[in-house]
Specification:
The chain is mainly α. 80% of the residues lie in helices and 0% in strands. The longest helix is centred in the middle third of the chain and has 25 residues. The two termini are 15 Å apart.
């Protein structure tokens, strides 16, 4: 994701760079908050498959963000 983000930022105009940077920062904050929620006490009751399921969802979210960043990149 970092490589795609850097390429996008290198090739974007100044206004787009600012907008994309703000969106990326907000997405990272969301991701971090989601991970905290994923690791909450509720998880203890869900069994061993919850970890694998949650990690798969995290990977899917990162892949989706990469696709979004690629949309901006030339």
């Amino acid at each position: 994701m970092n490589d795609v983000y850097q390429r996008t930022m290198r090739n974007a105009d100044p206004q787009s760079r600012m907008l994309i940077r703000n969106a990326q920062r907000q997405w990272l904050a969301y991701r971090d908050a989601q991970r905290q929620a994923d690791n909450g006490p509720w998880r203890a009751d869900r069994g061993s498959m919850a970890s694998a399921d949650i990690e798969a969802l995290n990977v899917d979210a990162i892949r989706a963000r990469i696709d979004e960043l690629n949309y901006y990149a030339p």
